[in-house]
């Protein structure tokens, strides 16, 4: 285990093992996710980006 992911004490380490927490969650490879989930994520991110942009434009011209 890397130093930054070291549990504080044995109780937390035991609970992480019981709950099935992943040690290196930040290293998840998003390109290996199923395509429908990736497309849905891109759709949501695009929707929010376009919505924010449209709100800003409408506020300027209003």
From TrEMBL:
Q: What is this protein called?
A: Amino acid transporter
So where does this one cross the membrane?
37-61
Domain of life per record: Bacteria
Keywords of this entry: Membrane, Transmembrane, Transmembrane helix
């Amino acid at each position: 285990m890397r130093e930054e992911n070291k549990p504080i004490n044995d109780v937390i380490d035991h609970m992480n093992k019981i709950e099935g927490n992943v040690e290196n969650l930040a290293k998840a490879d998003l390109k290996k996710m199923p395509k429908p989930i990736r497309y849905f994520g891109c759709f949501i991110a695009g929707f929010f980006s376009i919505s924010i942009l449209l709100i800003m434009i409408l506020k300027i011209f209003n």
